[in-house]
């Protein structure tokens, strides 16, 4: 094993990486590759555990909502014609109907006290709010002549009817969707399994005996980001510059994960072993380096049916690359419906000017605010690709395409961070 790895390191000196690609080309290559990678398997979970999961089935209504005609408020139910005929005498009260009661048909010439959500008795065609009536000697009188057919009655199926599509497969579930499932009597729902991701950092500088030991930040940053997307993330740190040690870690991670992510070790230094080790494992390069800033070193490879994202070692660049490449891929792997990019962008007026280099697409950390009815997008100061403080102050990114510029006062669109 050691000999083959050393041979791989030597051959790396003569290996010619694919030409650096433009940002949009890199995204197109990844999207095309995604078409040939199967979605994750599905499983059934209880609806109490379904929040944050992605539906693997369509949900159609097996019953309407409301299930029957119901009262929209506390009041009195009767026939409009009966009340008009009774005039100043009013209608005698025959009883009260509460939510959950199965009322008998309405007899001619009487009214019922009715509570919000209670079924309308057959024959009643109107509900007048309690505060618009008066009760004397067991009779209900109208304080104003406002009774009309259908008043304050929620009709069966006015929200949705039996057979209507409620939720489509690919919908990521949250608090808005779970009441629908409960209403339809769903105790369990089919969802895509949570993806398993291994995040690997490497370098002797993370070892306890290093003379200039560093705190490893990237695996924590990336794990937290991807866990918020529903992934099951395992963090590994190879605390040496040994190719053999790195191979052991990456080989183990490849067996355990649906997606493999590395951070650092992908440049051209003598201790940058990630790419040669992955090639020795059989990984094929989809693209090597992207004309973007920050994040130029990003490399994406394919190991069988598994994608390997090799992110830069600088934390800021690693975070931005993960937002732009890993998160969208992860959502696709679990079948999540991809909303149109335009609908995900937030528009506002730029408070700054910027000119991108002719061959580099730039992503700028920005902060979105609403001020006196205007949407403003402000540049967040950054010291470069290693900056993690600026990420805490930013709410998203503004993309400036290669050779393009943005002037203060112009409208621009922010890509919000996935948090």
Number of domains: 4
Q: Report the C-alpha radius of gyration, rounded.
A: 31 Å
CATH domain class name of the largest domain: Alpha Beta
Q: What proportion strand?
A: 25-35%
The CATH topology of the largest domain turns out to be Molybdenum Cofactor Biosythetic Enzyme, Chain A
- Uncertain runs with pLDDT below 50, 5 residues or more? 5-14
Largest sheet: 6 strands, mixed
* Distance separating the two termini: 41 Å
Total strand count, please?
27
Globular, elongated, flat, extended or rod-shaped: what is the shape?
elongated
Q: What is the helix content?
A: 10-25%
CATH architecture of the largest domain: 3-Layer(aba) Sandwich
Roughly what is the average pLDDT, rounded to an integer? Answer: 92
Strand order across the biggest sheet? 8-5-7-6-10-9
Description:
The chain is α/β, with parallel strands linked by helices. The protein folds into four domains: 41-63 and 159-190, Molybdopterin biosynthesis moea protein, domain 2 (Alpha-Beta Complex), CATH 3.90.105.10; 68-152, Beta Complex (Molybdopterin biosynthesis moeA protein, domain 3), CATH 2.170.190; 193-332, MoaB/Mog-like domain (Molybdenum Cofactor Biosythetic Enzyme, Chain A, 3-Layer(aba) Sandwich); 344-414, MoeA, C-terminal, domain IV (Beta-clip, Beta Barrel), CATH 2.40.340. The chain contains ten helices and 27 strands. The chain has helices spanning 2-12, 23-34, 80-86, 178-183, 218-227, 243-256, 274-280, 315-333, 341-344, 389-393, and strands spanning 21-22, 42-46, 59-60, 70-71, 75-78, 91-97, 111-114, 126-129, 133-136, 139-142, 153-154, 165-167, 188-192, 196-202, 232-238, 259-263, 284-288, 290-293, 299-303, 306-311, 346-350, 354-355, 361-371, 374-379, 396-400, 405-406, 411-416. Strands 8-5-7-6-10-9 form a six-stranded mixed sheet, with helices on one face. α1 packs across α7, α2 runs parallel beside α8 (315-333) and α5 (218-227) packs parallel to α8. It is elongated and about 100 Å long. Mean pLDDT is 92; it is low at 5-14.
